[in-house]
Specification:
The complex is a heterodimer of chains A (332) and B (366). Helices cover 33% and strands 16% of the residues of chain A. Chain A is built from 11 helices and 12 strands. Chain B is built from 6 helices and 30 strands. Chain B starts with a strand and ends in a 21-residue tail after the last strand. Chain B has helices at residues 83-92, 106-114, 131-140, 165-175, 208-213, 228-240; strands at residues 3-6, 16-22, 28-30, 35-40, 45-49, 54-58, 65-67, 71-76, 154-158, 180-185, 195-196, 199-203, 219-222, 248-249, 254-255, 260-261, 266-267, 272-273, 278-279, 284-285, 290-291, 296-297, 302-303, 308-309, 314-315, 320-321, 326-327, 332-333, 338-339, 344-345. Classes of the chains: A alpha/beta (332), B alpha/beta (366). The A-B interface holds A 6, 37-39, 122-124, 174, 177-178, 211, 231, 233-236, 309-311, 328, 331-332 and B 9, 11-13, 33, 44, 46-49, 101, 105-108, 110, 113, 130-131.
């Protein structure tokens, strides 16, 4: 039984606190025994009370303070309880933390990691279920990183906290927290070589070429992996590429892997328009236009607000069924 | 099929919850999507809706604490006389809601659709229809099957070094990827040591067997075609000595489905051989000849360009066609006949006959 997404993150937080006294952690309701709304930070307050701060309800405040700590030599980890609230910290993150290293050069470093869970599917309603990371893509100086079930989230978090001197928005997924990480037993998994934030590659077949290629990240890895398992029985061979650094355009390695005969499906949890997939598709067309047999297919949540009622929410969000239909549709 | 609804995953905060209220009573009919009950977690009141239509049988009481995965409500197909038995059965049987695997995989379905077929076109089978099954079926009835007229790739050419026969056979061989012209054997000793289109004239007919033994060539094709009797006897002479013959089929020739062919035939560019035709051995068929479906052609025949036969025509051995000969359907042309240029056949031709064409044509100075 492999470790859960949440357990991997929790272990990494403990590790980070233990190894480096400069690491500080700020979030709402993080004091033990509660340990945070989703329990990701459970236990670190008890062990390192001088460096774990439970804050008032002020996202702008805690990201600002986190940035300040970071500028003064600490390594800050700030937890925003629901990704929907990250908008409240947008000014601090975009206009301050991300810009200072660019404006003041090497004199100013901001090793700040802002962690937050995005995504719906729990009936939490329109303002607690969004996937808003797309709003932070394309911000100069800000890395947006999101681990999928095929990555080790803890390793990515460690890289973000220790390996960077500029801010990282670290996007987790509520639905994925209790899920066991996919170790390669069910679906063949490998990482593309190179890069601090690797691209995971997963396949539901062995040998031969894929029928369809899927691009996805983060929380979408849950419906995508379920779709791949279901389609294995239908003999449809799917190869999925899951980048972890969303703010990087697709590298030459990834584009080379996409240069084949298989149609491409991009799956993401955010709403339909002006999202990660739009940019990736544009990069694909720029490089591979004459070599594609058909247009890139994008599948996502609908445009609108996430309903609270379960059946409406299921119909609204990205789902295993929608991913399967997109994949089968790519072949017919 | 009765369905069992269990307490769903409640979020990272809660492994269990309170059954706050029921919206249905024992045995009440519900539609799919209808509200069954409300569960209360630490953060929210969660409404549970019926997954399908049926008769509802709650399996937890109001005010009871239930765990994730615990049976919550049974949805029966019909009103139950003994609800307890149904609940017990569903609670113990994890496969109660399992659906049977479809009889055909999606991939197989997609493959059939691409060829304009459906499941009904396949022979009936008790097993699940997979991609492999469909591929085998398509191969067996394929109308796009690639014909392989010859297995020999290193080809020696007999004759035609003067007069153009060797040249056009070599040119055809050079266009294809499967075969290679190696050398020419010609009776004219003056030609030995020269070459045609880069292919050397290596010797005469007597040198063929040595070349075969040495592995220089794998098979022979006869390129001279003015004299069909000579062509036939050279073929029979070499065949009797065990020399293999290759077919030369131009890449631009169209050989349709279910065509059977002997050996040593030359078929040049633009020629069409219709479906289910049978061709014998050692025929020389020029460019642009049209043999329609169901034709039966013997051996050692020679065709000028643009001969056209209709369907189901039978042609014997050693028949000489000029240019632009037209043959109506279902006719029989016997062996050793001569059909001069421009002939239009509307009746059978017995063995050993020449068709005398009469239309008036003369040359007049301008």
């Amino acid at each position: 039984m492999s470790r859960t997404y949440l357990a991997s993150l929790n272990a990494a937080l403990h590790d980070l606190m233990a190894r480096d006294e400069r690491v500080v952690f700020i979030g709402e309701d993080v004091r033990d025994p509660y340990g945070g709304a989703f329990k990701v930070s459970k236990g670190i307050h008890a062990m390192y009370p001088g460096r774990v701060f439970s804050s008032p309800v002020s996202e702008a405040g805690i990201v600002g303070i986190g940035a300040g700590f970071a500028m003064r030599g600490f390594r800050s980890i700030v937890e925003i309880m629901f990704g929907d609230f990250s908008i409240l910290a947008a000014d601090q993150l975009i206009n301050t933390a991300s810009k200072f290293p660019l404006m003041y050069g090497e004199n100013v470093r901001v090793p700040l990691v802002v962690r937050t869970p995005m995504g719906g599917g729990r009936g939490y309603g329109p303002t607690h279920s969004q996937s808003l990371e797309k709003m932070f893509l394309g911000v100069p100086g800000l890395d947006v990183v999101s681990p999928s079930l095929f990555h080790d989230p803890g390793s990515l978090l460690m890289e973000a906290v220790t390996g960077t001197s500029r801010p990282v928005l670290f996007v987790e997924s509520k639905l994925l927290y209790p899920s066991p990480l996919l170790s390669g037993a069910e679906l063949r998994t490998r990482m593309l070589p190179g890069g601090r934030y690797p691209v995971a590659v997963a396949e539901n077949f062995s040998g031969g070429k894929p029928d369809v290629v899927v691009l996805a990240y983060g929380g979408a890895s849950l419906p995508v992996s379920k779709a791949m398992l279901a389609l294995r029985q239908e003999e449809i061979k799917v190869r999925a590429f899951l980048p972890s650094a969303l703010s990087d355009p697709p590298g030459a390695d990834l584009l080379a892997e996409l240069d084949g005969e298989a149609p491409i499906v991009i799956a993401e949890e955010g709403t339909e328009s002006f999202n990660w997939g739009s940019e990736i598709a544009a990069c694909i067309y720029e490089r591979l236009l004459g070599r594609l047999r058909r247009p890139v297919i994008r599948v996502s949540s609908r445009n609108g607000v996430v309903p609270a009622r379960q059946d409406l929410e299921v119909a609204f969000l990205l789902s295993e069924e929608k991913v399967m239909n997109a994949i089968v549709g790519a072949l017919t | 099929m009765s369905e069992l609804m269990r307490v769903p995953f409640l979020g990272a905060n809660d492994d269990e919850c309170l059954v706050s209220s029921w919206a249905v009573t024992e045995g009440s009919p519900v539609e799919a999507g209808q509200l069954l009950c409300v569960l209360e977690t630490t953060k929210t009141a969660l409404e549970i809706y019926a997954a399908c239509a049926g008769f509802a049988y709650p399996m937890a009481g109001r005010g009871e604490r239930v765990s994730v995965g615990q049976p919550l409500c049974a949805l029966a197909e019909a009103v139950q006389a003994d609800p307890g038995a149904l609940k017990a059965r569903l609670a113990n049987d994890p496969a109660a809601a399992a659906r049977p695997a479809a009889q055909i995989t999606k991939k197989a379905e997609i493959l059939l659709a691409r060829h304009g077929l459906g499941i009904v076109d396949l022979p009936p089978s008790a097993n699940r229809i997979t991609e492999e099954v469909v591929q085998a079926f398509l191969a067996s009835r394929s109308v796009n099957r690639e014909s392989k007229p010859t297995k020999y790739s290193r080809v020696g050419i007999l004759g035609g070094a003067s007069g153009g026969g060797a040249m056009i056979v070599i040119e055809s061989l050079l266009r294809g990827k499967a075969q290679q012209p190696i050398c020419i054997f010609d009776r004219d000793a003056e030609r030995h040591g020269t070459s045609v289109m880069g292919v050397p004239v290596a010797g005469s007919i007597d040198d063929i067997e040595d070349a075969l033994r040495a592995g220089k060539i794998e098979a022979i094709v006869i390129a001279f075609n003015r004299n069909l009797e000579e062509r036939a006897s050279a073929f029979e002479h070499l065949r009797a000595r065990g020399v293999p013959f290759a077919n030369v089929v131009d890449p631009e020739a169209q050989i349709r489905s279910e065509v059977r062919m002997g050996v040593g035939n030359v078929i040049l560019g633009g020629t069409y051989v219709g479906a289910e035709s049978v061709i014998g051995d050692n025929n020389f068929i020029s460019a642009g000849v049209h043999l329609e479906h169901g034709n039966r052609l013997g051996s050692h025949c020679g065709f000028g360009p643009h001969v056209a036969t209709s369907g189901d025509v039978t042609i014997g051995d050693r028949v000489r066609f000029g240019i632009g000969v037209f043959v109506e359907p279902c006719l029989r042309i016997g062996s050793r006949c001569v059909l001069p240029s421009g002939a239009v056949l509307t009746s059978d031709v017995p063995d050993g006959h020449v068709v005398q064409v009469s239309y008036h044509q003369r040359l007049k100075p301008i």
